Amino acid sequence: MDANEVLSRYAVGQRDFTKMNLIAFNLKGENLSGANFSGANLSGAKLNGANLSGANFSGANLTRTDLSLANLSGATLTGANLTETKLAQANLKKTKLSAVDISNMNLSQA
Known about the structure:
Blueprint: H1 3-11
């Protein structure tokens, strides 16, 4: 599966991307609100500027993922690995961030 297939599936109503391997996918600026990425591997993905409001990233690997300027309002990141993740200027209103690994995470102006 590649980034275009994820977007195609989302466009037809699929929201469940549980445990998928999405390493280094470029989904910059895309609308993926309400998607379920629990347990998925998004290491190194480009999600900057994406609309991820209400998305579920529980237990996901977001190591070195770029979430700068992303809308994560109401998203769930419980148990996610956010090591070296960029969240600069991201919207984190009502985002659930319990039990996350935040080693070297960039939260400037978030």
